[in-house]
Automatic annotation (TrEMBL):
This is ABC transporter substrate-binding protein. One of its GO terms (biological process) is amino acid transport. Residues 38-270 form the Solute-binding protein family 3/N-terminal domain. Belongs to the bacterial solute-binding protein 3 family. It comes from Sinorhizobium fredii (strain HH103). GO terms for cellular component: extracellular region; outer membrane-bounded periplasmic space.
Length: 298
């Protein structure tokens, strides 16, 4: 009887272990993180206030603060309180490939969600809602897209704005000369130096550049006529367990009121490195998502 009991215990332990391994293997991302003893976070270098470099050249921002909560949940789930955090800079062009090939586990930047990207990667519930707009020099007198006819405008390579500008140009036959910069900072420089008369990008990112400029009043945001678009944290496609963990962490933060407090910290109060205030209170579209977290792109 004793030998049978031992044998049964061995068999039961083996089966239980197999089921545990099977369940854990459902998340390729968590398996990779556990195996490495580290998580790799993708961040942006100039997406104020979501993810950018502070005075000490270390990444800071709203999205990175949100990801800190997610990382806390990952540490608890994997039983790795000393999980190492690796930080990798990404840009509009390489952020999706780096998620797809597993170089980056979680992108904490300013990535907009759309149907095309959902074919390649997955996203969390929305963490922000934006509207693409134009940033122009106040002295230019530009008040709308019609005033841009025949002029040079700049967009950031790999950004949603590339398609928006091309679509607008074709639909309204504006004859725009659309040039692409490597990142948002270069796009802003292109506008500032007069090589383009307008910079098309998400309104909050443009507000960040305007607030950080030497003369905010010399720059004006002009509505682009586009609808609301969600931002979200980005990770590998098809990893349901990892998505559940990320969404759970964000939804919990929204329900507790901590998300709104964090929003106010970055969007309605002075932020580093220059203590500028974006003066960008939470809009109705985001308030709705906070009340009812959703990953819908509608």
């Amino acid at each position: 009887m004793k030998l049978k009991s031992i044998a049964a215990t061995v068999v039961y332990t083996a089966i239980a272990s197999s089921f545990a391994n099977f369940a854990h293997a459902q998340s390729e991302t968590l398996d990779r993180i556990k195996s490495a003893g580290a998580i790799t976070i993708g961040y942006r270098e100039s997406s104020i206030p979501f993810s950018y470099l502070g005075a000490d050249q270390q990444p800071i921002g709203f999205s990175l603060d949100l990801c800190a909560d997610v990382i806390g949940k990952i540490k608890a789930k994997l039983g790795l309180p000393d999980l190492k955090i690796n930080l990798t800079p990404v840009n509009s062009s390489n952020r999706i490939p780096l998620i797809q090939n597993g170089t980056v586990d979680l992108e904490c930047g300013s990535t907009a969600v759309n149907a095309k990207r959902l074919e390649q990667v997955s996203f969390s519930v929305a963490t922000f809602m934006v509207q693409p707009s134009w940033l122009v020099k106040t002295a230019s007198g530009i008040e709308g897209a019609r005033d841009l006819a025949g002029k040079t405008v700049v967009v950031t390579q790999g950004s949603n704005a590339v398609g928006f500008a091309q679509e607008l140009n074709g639909k309204d036959k504006l004859g725009l000369n659309i040039i692409q910069a490597k990142d948002h900072a270069e796009s802003f420089l292109t506008l500032n130096t007069g090589r383009a008369v307008a910079f098309l990008e998400d309104d909050i990112l443009l507000a960040g550049f305007r607030a950080a400029s030497d003369s905010p009043s010399s720059l004006t945001l002009v509505e682009g006529g586009f609808g609301n678009i969600p931002y979200a944290l980005m990770f590998s496609k098809g990893d349901a367990e990892f998505k559940q963990l990320v969404d759970g962490a964000l939804s919990e933060k929204m329900a507790s009121g901590e998300f709104t407090k964090l929003y106010d910290k970055w969007f309605t109060q002075p932020i580093p490195p220059r203590n500028e205030n974006l003066e960008f209170p939470m809009g109705a579209a985001l308030k709705e998502r906070v009340a009812k977290p959703s990953d819908s792109i509608e």
